[in-house]
Automatic annotation (TrEMBL), chains A, B:
Belongs to the Cob(I)alamin adenosyltransferase family. It catalyses: 2 cob(II)yrinate a,c diamide + reduced [electron-transfer flavoprotein] + 2 ATP = 2 adenosylcob(III)yrinate a,c-diamide + 2 triphosphate + oxidized [electron-transfer flavoprotein] + 3 H(+); 2 cob(II)alamin + reduced [electron-transfer flavoprotein] + 2 ATP = 2 adenosylcob(III)alamin + 2 triphosphate + oxidized [electron-transfer flavoprotein] + 3 H(+). It is an enzyme of class 2 (transferase). This is Corrinoid adenosyltransferase. Pathway: Cofactor biosynthesis; adenosylcobalamin biosynthesis; adenosylcobalamin from cob(II)yrinate a,c-diamide: step 2/7. It comes from the Bacteria. Its EC number is 2.5.1.17. Residues 1-27 form the Cob(I)alamin adenosyltransferase N-terminal domain. Required for both de novo synthesis of the corrin ring for the assimilation of exogenous corrinoids. Participates in the adenosylation of a variety of incomplete and complete corrinoids. NCBIfam families: cobA, PRK05986.1.
Length: 209, 209
């Protein structure tokens, strides 16, 4: 089947046996079950996109059970992510998507309007947190609303912490507040290593929109 | 509508006007269109998940046009991401998913078998790269196959660079090779800031599987 020397194959096998023992022990040590508070932050791409990818995990579970619906509340963006919204429409009522933001804050240029929009979005988020059919709630760009003080940080964190057991919440957006990171179970920072915009390549269909 | 002082509102407006001018100028400066070579790497979560989220962008485009199908080749994982696979089945023939890996390398413990599996997966990837109905190709965990030298790096990079115009390719997996980062248009590193495993919380349905 191959020309790999027996010695090398044995070495590989021994190394991987060791690795497997470590992995298995690690998995066995984790026993607690709970809904997670997840934060995707950083200046890189993929924060919202990974959240929508997580939605697929929930939607891949058998339909009709408690917690197999997905809620999305968009706090800031409206124009972006419309293709994902269109695609998730394939799952019908299993995805409940609310675009509450008025667009980027540098598009609206109106603080009162942005604050009011963030408050409406937060009220919708609270409504969905109470809905037991929902297993995953994506609060898209909530970090931006918090950064600009459109919403009181203390209130938001207290409510997220008091969420019902079993509900996963994903908060996206750059510049996550330290208090939110402190409260979260899982935080990933998306770091930009290299971007095609730097090379003069424009926003691409299928990638940026 | 609000109790924001006029002065503060005006200051906000002026700041955002400035910000908008910068954004608009930046967008206008990007003119090139091309399929992108994208790499998701790093030890954090969300590398594959963000790739599957990108799939939704392609699938949200109107059906039937060239480049609106998605290909997935899984080089290493088999057991994970089955929920995403089940969910993407909702899009029928628009998603072509091939799980070619035999599982994690520390599960198989067999170098010859892993090398042969990686070769078969790469041949499938080449086949999908030639298929013009596909607009986005996800090479899931290819970085792992490259890291363990299951495939020759030079051959892989040359083929990826020579891909047809308009095809987006996403390569996932930690420890991306520097030569691949060099060849890529867009590289995001997912950095682990905080993980619930550390707090003894186990892999959660809807998040890890």
């Amino acid at each position: 089947m191959s020309d790999i020397p027996a010695e090398e194959a044995a070495r590989h096998r021994a190394k991987m046996e060791k690795r497997k023992a470590v992995q298995d022990a690690e998995v066995a040590s984790k026993t607690q079950e709970k809904g997670l508070l997840i934060v995707h932050t950083g200046a890189g791409k993929g924060k919202s996109t990974a959240a929508f990818g997580l939605a697929l995990r929930t939607l891949g579970q058998p339909e009709g059970q408690a917690g197999t619906r997905v809620g999305v509340v968009q706090f800031i963006k409206g124009a972006w992510h419309s293709a994902e919204r269109d695609a998730l429409a394939a799952f019908g009522a299993r995805v409940e998507w609310h675009t509450m933001g008025e667009g980027f804050t540098w598009e609206t240029q109106d603080l009162a309007r942005d604050t009011a929009a963030a408050r409406r979005a937060w009220e919708k988020a609270c409504e969905l947190m109470a809905d037991e059919s929902i297993g995953l709630l994506i609060l898209d760009e909530l970090n931006i609303a918090l950064r600009y003080d459109y919403l009181p940080l203390d209130e938001v964190i207290a409510t997220l912490k008091a969420r019902r057991e079993g509900l996963h919440v994903v908060v996206t957006g750059r510049n996550a507040k330290p208090a939110l990171i402190e409260a979260a179970d899982l935080v990933t920072e998306m770091t930009l290593v290299k971007h095609h915009f730097k090379a003069g390549v424009k926003a691409q269909k299928g990638i940026e929109f």
